[in-house]
Design brief:
Layout lengths: L5 E6 L7 H14 L3 E5 L2 H7 L2 E4 L26 H13 L4 E6 L1 H14 L3 E5 L15 H22 L2 E6 L6 H9 L4 E3 L7 H15 L3 E6 L6 H12 L5 E5 L11 H19 L5 E6 L2 E6 H4 L8 H10 L2
Parallel strand pairs: 1-2, 1-4, 4-5, 5-10, 6-8, 6-9, 7-8
Antiparallel strand pairs: 2-3, 10-11
Helix pairs in contact: 1-9, 2-3, 5-6, 6-11
Length: 326
Amino acid sequence: MSEIKCVGIITSGNDAPGMNSAIRAVTRSAIYNGLRVKAVYRGYKGLIDGDIVEFKTQNVSNIIQQGGTILKSSPSQDFFSPEGRKKAFENIQREEIDALIVIGGDGTIHGARIFAQEYDIPSIAIPATIDNNLNGTDTTIGYDTALNTIMQCVDKIRDTATSHERLFFVEVLGDDAGFLALNGAIASGCEEAIIPSAQIETDQLTNFIENGFRKTKSSSIVLVAANENSGGAMYYADLVKQHHPELDVRVSILGHLQRGGQPTAHDRITASRMGSASIEAVMKGLPNVMIGIDNDEIVHVPFSRAVREPRKIDPAMLEILHNVSI
């Protein structure tokens, strides 16, 4: 491997609170280690378009507390074509970038994996997604902030649910993983969580209504993980109304507010650790790995493992939810 003198930073895919904290850590750790830093605006699209500027330490001043990403993010189907990646590589050569630090979720890492294989560009990924669905790491940047946002919203919904003795279905993000729905339900005292890996069928849902809401509860809240195949909160609300027209059923879809807001201390610290570790990995010549945290230790996860399949829910956590929601 040739000597690394300049690293490029990209944020791609959906934004997540803490991305700016990671950008800051990567930039300043690189400069501390004598490397130049080139920031790529608007994700892989910016890499193709040549939307690249050099960053100094002052470029990342006062951003650790900001949500979103100062580098912006934009989808690019062109990057998943050979012609698009060829343009991106030409821009990398022109800018004299020797290694890439990519910050994002599974789609971002998948793109980096293909690019690294084709053009032998050392690439280090920092997992930043509120879904927390990547293998090889206990947590991803943005997950803790989104979880806290859900908890705060559900706490407020609980007030009106209790006042009017209502059953609320609250739809949250989380893709196929369901971590936000499950842990959000535990954190906010919900009665049930409907997640892709543990779908609730009609009879199970009816049993929950009869044994939970009707007999012991003055209100109930069910978190539903938004998923293309599940139908979402509206589907389950309509299902309950059909079987129990006597119940006052309402729906709240939290949507994109879960992606915004100032990152929590946990996400800022995680982003700072991972950002610094990404530069250490570059300096050690460890290409094409994702930075992860396993049992509070930094680990290096091969791209193939990180995106092989979505991270699985621990069934014990579902059991905990059911035990404490009676």
